[in-house]
Amino acid sequence: MATPTYTPLANITLSSAQSSVNFSSISQAYRDLIVVMNVSLTSGQWPYYRFNNDSSTIYNYVAAYTDGTSRGSNYSANDPAIFIDLNGQITATLETITINISDYSATDKHKSCLHRKNKSDGYVNMTGGRWASTAAITSVNLITTTSWAAGSTFALYGVVA
Amino acid sequence: MANETMTLISTVTVGAGGAADITFSSIPATYTDLFLEISVRSTAGDTLGIRFNSDSGTNYAWKQLYANGATVYNAVSGSGTNTAFLCSFTGRNDQTSNTFSNTTFYIPNYLASTAKTASIDSISENNATTNAWQGVAGGSWSGTSAITTITLFTGYTSTTFIQYSTVSLYGILKGSGGATVS
User: Fold this and answer.
1) What is the ipTM of this complex?
2) Which of B66, B114, B174 to mutate to test the interface with A (most CBs of A within 10 A)?
3) Predicted TM-score of the model (pTM)
């Protein structure tokens, strides 16, 4: 029997705009989580994500980015969320975002994540982040200050060890 | 029982004669996303080209951030569009022996009737102080047809993939228990 790899846990397709999308009650049976987003926004903004709806200032992240003509890096500490890209807005153009979350169910370590944002008419970004909590991740919250556009898709996969 | 996904669709390994291109055709329409694992080396040059559905029109756009350990660069598809994705690397046959590049190429919603986006990570590390590249890129193809063919080629004229270059195509299937939120 083939060994399961990416196990699909949930998927959401928006038939109308939504300000946030949440994966909740996440099974604790896997080692890592992967979120795959194919999204656009109703108007340009800087979305962010949290774990377990935690809005306390315990998110830290470092990013490298380019818009094709310039490049840079930035670091944020003690933030209330991890911003997907502080330099390039997500707009009405479709783009792919992936978030890898390691050891999400562990209770003896902070949670690290790596996300990639790919916008061929905007910014390409890679970000490594840390949620300074030893709590197991039971929900992933993908939040905008405008709305994820209708047609946006969100998929959550579990990866076994 | 857990639903298994990330299913291997096909693997191509280049034989002794080399190959001008590597093509996956008649890609089944039974998955949600596609994922390529690419390990290639070319006779010359270090640029990997990728096209969908044999489309060689100026329908590809990409932006790339890459570095060689000493310098960071950024690149953008010419005039905003190009005739292929040219934003990842091959190993080169004039570099350290037995070194092949490593590229992952993720295509969500490949069956959608909208433009297709891609997330690309690529490394060509060959134990050298130069020409050892790593980069990330984001791309889009403006075609609104389902992707049925993917073609990989070396980005330089009259060059080929050498023996043992290997590309695997996987299909990733989203769960059936998802929700459509309205």
Assistant:
1) 0.77
2) B174
3) 0.86
